[in-house]
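Supplementary Methods S3. Input chains for the assembly prediction are listed below.
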Amino acid sequence: MERSEQELVRRANLEKIRELGIEPFPAATFAVTHLAKEINKTAEFAEDNLSTNLTEVTVAGRVMAQRIMGKAAFASIQDSSGRVQIYVSRDDIAPGEDKALYNTLFKKLLDLGDFIGVTGHVFKTRTGETSIHVKEFTFLGKSLRPLPTPKTDDEGKVHDAFNDPEQRHRMRYVDLTVNPQFKEIFRKRSRLITAMRSYLDGLELMEVETPILQTIHGGAAARPFKTFHNTLDMPMYLRIANELHLKRLIVAGFDGVYEFAKDFRNEGMDRTHNPEFTLLEFYVAYKDYEWMMDTCEALLEFSVKTVNGGETTTVKIGDNTIDFKGPYRRLTMADSIMEYTGEDINDADEDALRAICKRLHVHTDDSMGRGKLIDEIFGEHVEAKLIQPTFITDYPIEMSPLTKKHRSKEGLVERFELIINGKEIANSYSELNDPIDQRERFEEQAKLAARGDDESMPMDEDFLRALEYGMPPTAGIGIGIDRLVMLLTGQKSIQEVLFFPQMREENLEK
RNA sequence: GAUUCCUUAGCUCAGCCGGUUAGAGCAUCUGACUUUUAAUCAGAGGGUCCUGGGUUCGAUCCCCAGAGGGGUCACCA
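Predicted C-alpha cells for the full assembly:
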C-alpha cells in the first residue's frame, strides 16, 4: 500500500515520540474534569480576564488546529461536546533547561488529529476567547492519517468542507470528527428512541426481542434476504417484519409488547430506503385501531417534545412547518380521494375504477385488482399532498392480509396509515385474530405467489396454530423510525440518519 | 434494475476546444514569531488526473468497456 507523504511523516513522528521515552498510545485512565462546552459555558472572569473560577481543569480530546508563534502557541482541542482553545507557552510546560516537551513534542511531533490531555487554568485572551493556560500536557493517542481540515471564517463561511457523501458515509468516524454538527442528528435519533421507549413503558408494554433469523418471512410484503444455517442444514431468511412473532406473544398472554426491530428487505435503495432499517412495532390486547390512532398521536407528540427538549411540537422541513400536536386529521381513503380528485370510489367496481384511473392519468395494468387500483390513485394524487400528520383509514381488503375486516364497511379493513410530509410514517390495524379468516387470506396470498408475485406472504402454519389457540382482539402498529428521524432532523436522505448506511464494497487494495 | 451526471494532491476545487514540466487555497515539510483564531511572513515538497482498452505522432482531456458515488424513475417502508 502506497502511503502519502503526510502519512509517512506521522509514522516517523510516532517513532520519534517513542524515542523521547513517551508512549504514543498510553493505557492508563486519564482523569478528565471538564468538557470543552462546560468550560466555555461556566467560566466566570475576573476584571483582568486572567483568572476565573476554573483554576484547574483537565480536558482531553483531539488537536484540531494549531497556531504556533515561536515560544507560545494556541491549539484547539475537540472533545465530544465541542472545542476549547488551549494556550501553551514553552516555559510553562517545560520550565527547566530541557525544552524538548515544547520544542520537539508539542511543536514538531504533534499532528492534527492526535489525542492529548491538558491541565491548566482558564482565562480569556486579548481577543476574548476562553482558553486554558496549559501547565501540563499528556500525549494520549497518535493519529496516523491526516484529517480533512474544514475551516470556518469570520462570516461563518465553511472552507474545504468535507462534503463528499461517499467518503462521509464510508468513513463516518472522519465525518463526525470534522463535521461534528452532524452528531446532533444522531443525538436526536437516540433521544427519540429513548422517549418512545419511556412512553411505551409508561403504558406498561413490555420490550421484547424476537428472532431476526427466520425460516418463514412473514408480516409484510417484501422480498427477503436469504441465508443458510450450516448445522441445521436449511435456508433461513432475515426478517422483513416482526409482526407475526409479536402477535404470538399476545397469544401467549402478554397484554402489550413492543420491539425496536432491525428489519431487512432485499429491494431497491434510494434516499428513503436502506436494506436494513428500524421499525418500532407494538401490539396491545383488547384495543382497536381507533385506540391506536389516539395512542400514536400521543406517542408522537410526547416524543417530538422530548427530542426538541421542551414544549415545541413543530418541526421545519423545507418550506413546511409540521406540527406533531394531536389530534391529527382522520380521513378515510375514499374521502381523501374524493377531496383531492373529486372522484367517488365508494361504490365503484373494478371497471369503474379503471375508468377513474384513466381520467386521472393513473397508470394501470391488467394484474391490478380493486385494492391495487385504489392504492395507485391514492399514491399518485393524494399522498404527497398530505403534509401535516394525517391518518388515512379504512383500506381495501385485498392489500391487507393480516388485518381485521371492517366492523361495518364491506370490502374494507380496519387499517390506518399515518402520512406526514407526503410520506408514510406508520401503518396500523385492528389485528386479524380469526384463524379461519386468516387462513383464507394466506391462501389468497398463495394464489398471488403462484402468479409470480415474489412479495406475497407465505403461509405460516405455526402462526395459524397460535391463532387457533385464541388471540384477544388486538391493535398493532409499525412506525418507521428512520423516516421519523429524517422528519425530526430535516434530512432528505436516509443515509444521513444512519451511522453506517449500506454501500457497495470499497476497494481498499490500491 | 433503467437513465443521467460526477471521479484531478490528505481536503475543497481550477484546468486542458488533444500538445513541453497538470495548478490554487488549506493541510504537510524547513525557517521566523510569547495572546493567535481561516494566525501571519519567507521558502520547499507532494499527483496511477478512478481502472482497462481504443483512436492519435501525442490522451488527464476524444471513443468503448468497467468500478465507485450522486440525482431521477421503477420496486418498496
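The two ends of chain A are 6 Å apart (CA to CA). Chain A has two domains: 5-147, 182-328+388-497.
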